[in-house]
Design brief:
Layout (H helix, E strand, L loop, with lengths): L13 H22 L8 H12 L7 E2 L7 E2 L5 H13 L3 H15 L1 H12 L2 H13 L1 H7 L4 H24 L2 H15 L3 H18 L3 H17 L1 H11 L2 H7 L8 H9 L1 H4 L5 H16 L4 H13 L2 H25 L14 H22 L19 H13 L5 E4 L7 H5 L2 E2 L11 H15 L4 H10 L6 E5 L3 E3 L2 E3 L3 H9 L3 E6 L3 E6 L18
Parallel strand pairs: 3-4, 3-5
Antiparallel strand pairs: 1-2, 5-9, 6-7, 8-9
Helix pairs in contact: 1-4, 1-6, 1-19, 2-3, 4-8, 5-6, 5-8, 6-18, 6-19, 7-18, 8-9, 8-10, 9-11, 10-11, 10-17, 16-18, 17-18, 18-19
Length: 542
């Protein structure tokens, strides 16, 4: 019996569902924290940005050293790097530790605007809560938002979600405060990550089409776009003045670029179903929710999902609208369908509603379990049976980088045959002359050349393959860094090839200078043949 002044808990309230979603997001992040002693994937280049900002007295650096010969131009949106610089400078916190923990914390925070945006669109706390839970545990969202690069991307998605919420309010009401908020948030997103700025702008175009196709809506959208560009102008004007406009044109053509024809449609809407891996059920539910919404003539969310997926080509954007559509499917289709089943087991009438809700709860719980396991690297992907959220460097890599820093000349150059190539320059303060990371700011073709060459070299089975590729690409490193235990190449797990290490040890062209249980560092001898009809440049004596 409920006493006077008390009430039953409301399971359709904002408090209940937002608390549940934040709890789920926290569990996912704790799973990641407990299973990672180093940030997953790559983040060394980002921390090198921070180091150069500090070394430059907080002025915007022109170039970033150690990544490719001569360094790479610094044209990346700088906001988060300045925030990290100030934080580490003032507090003394280890930037690597910040990159390990901060993305997960921000990934919990961005669930709040996602919930309220969803509630505004779906007009239901229950649907908003379930959608936010899905968004908190969906692997493509987690992959890039809680790993090392999430220190930028999680902030970007936070700004973008806040901005889309402001945009929805703006195109529905025309309120000045939403106009100002949208403009400021667009500028912040531009100053954080270029891809999320594209998502922001595309979302506003769609909001205009669906919610305010008037001169007022056109004017407000133009004010947000123009105002954001003006507010961010101190940054992009300096970049254009220093490096030219071409630097943005070249970068926009990398990482599959914008749009992508038939191949983009296949990669975003066919292959995820065809792969049949741990992520496939999330796509099935989201796409089924999209088809159901189309059947019910609710076009905004399906259009938003297709726009984000096709234009940007990053699967994490699919699940902004996709998570909302998944919730719609659960609440409007799955639960009623289960409730309508003629169960052979007699159930009292007053409890029949509990059964479908319970089954739906089990389905959502399964999604949560998948997200937690994914974050904790307890699952494998369809590619090479690779672990999810891999740490691309370990203690052996850190020891090797320390040896390099202490025992090689400051101008020594390296080729690193694993994803550790992204971290080694930051830890060792030495240059890698092969790096896809940062190459997008040089040229579009240069990026794809680096990407392909890196994969090919990291897969070499003997020294002949190594020499041929180095020679044909005109790369003449002083050292080659070779993994001796399991390593990753763009996240795909590989086992070291004994033939490569054996042939390098047997070759007079290479001399092993450092070895631990996970890494071998070979120095190239003077004037070795390069298989391209010439001799390599002479090596400096060490």
């Amino acid at each position: 019996m409920i006493g006077k002044g008390t009430s039953k808990p409301r399971f359709d309230s904002d408090r209940f569902w937002l608390t549940a979603a934040l709890f789920v997001g926290s569990v996912v992040c704790v799973a990641y924290f407990l299973t990672h002693t180093h940030p997953a994937y790559e983040g060394g280049l980002y921390l090198q940005f921070v180091e150069e900002i500090l070394q430059n007295g907080y002025a915007l650096p022109d170039r970033i050293p150690y990544y490719l010969e001569g360094g790479i131009p610094f044209a990346y949106p700088p906001l988060v790097f300045y925030l990290i610089a100030v934080t580490t400078d003032v507090t003394g916190v280890d930037p690597v530790a910040l990159e390990l923990y901060a993305p997960g914390v921000i990934a919990i925070v961005y669930l709040i605007p996602f919930y309220y945006l969803t509630k505004e669109l779906l007009e239901s706390p229950t649907k908003a809560g379930i959608a936010t839970v899905f968004f908190a545990v969906t692997p493509p969202v987690l992959r890039w938002h809680i790993s090392a690069g999430g220190i930028v991307r999680s902030v970007a998605v936070l700004f973008a979600l806040l901005g889309v919420y402001a945009g929805l309010k703006l195109f529905r009401t025309g309120g000045v405060r939403w106009l100002l908020s949208g403009t400021m948030l667009f500028a912040l997103t531009m100053l954080t990550h270029p891809v999320y700025a594209v998502f922001f702008g595309g979302s506003y175009l769609l909001l205009f089409v669906f919610y305010d196709r008037t001169w007022r809506g056109l004017r407000n959208g133009a004010i947000v776009a123009t105002g954001g560009l003006v507010l961010a102008a101190p940054w992009w004007l300096q970049i254009v003045t220093t490096h030219g406009l071409d630097i943005y044109l070249s970068a926009s053509g990398t990482h599959t670029g914008l749009f992508g024809g038939v191949n983009r449609l296949a990669s975003q809407f066919v292959y995820p179903l065809w792969d049949m891996d741990v992520v496939t059920p999330f796509y099935v539910v989201a796409f089924a929710g999209g088809l159901y919404a189309l059947f019910r003539q609710r076009y905004f969310l399906p259009a938003w999902m297709v726009l984000a997926s096709y234009v940007i080509g990053k699967q994490r954007f699919t699940f902004v609208a996709g998570s909302m559509l998944s919730a719609v499917l659960v609440v409007e289709v799955i639960v009623p369908a289960l409730a309508a089943l003629d169960l052979s087991v007699p159930i009292p009438t007053d409890r029949r509603r509990i059964v479908p809700i319970g089954v739906a709860f089990v389905l959502v719980l399964g999604a949560i379990g998948t997200g937690v396991a994914f974050a904790g690297s307890e699952l494998t992907t369809a590619h090479h049976d690779s672990p999810t959220q891999p740490q691309t460097v370990d203690d052996n890599d850190l020891r090797a980088a320390e040896w390099i820093k202490d025992n090689t000349e400051p101008d020594a150059t390296f080729v690193v045959l694993s994803d550790a190539a992204e971290w080694v320059p930051y830890y060792s303060e030495r240059t890698v002359i092969l790096s896809p990371w940062g190459a997008e700011w040089t040229s579009t073709s240069g990026y794809y050349t680096e990407y392909a060459l890196f994969r090919d070299l990291a897969s070499c089975s003997d020294v002949t393959c190594l020499n041929v590729l180095l020679g044909l690409s005109d790369r003449h490193p002083d050292y080659v860094y070779v993994p001796r235990d399991v390593y990753t190449v763009h996240g795909d797990e590989h086992s070291p090839n004994p033939g490569l290490l054996h042939s390098m040890n047997a070759s007079e062209q290479y001399s092993m200078q450092h070895k631990n249980s996970g890494v071998a560092v070979f120095e190239l001898t003077d004037s070795q043949p390069t298989h391209n009809g010439s001799n390599a440049t002479a090596r400096r004596p060490r």
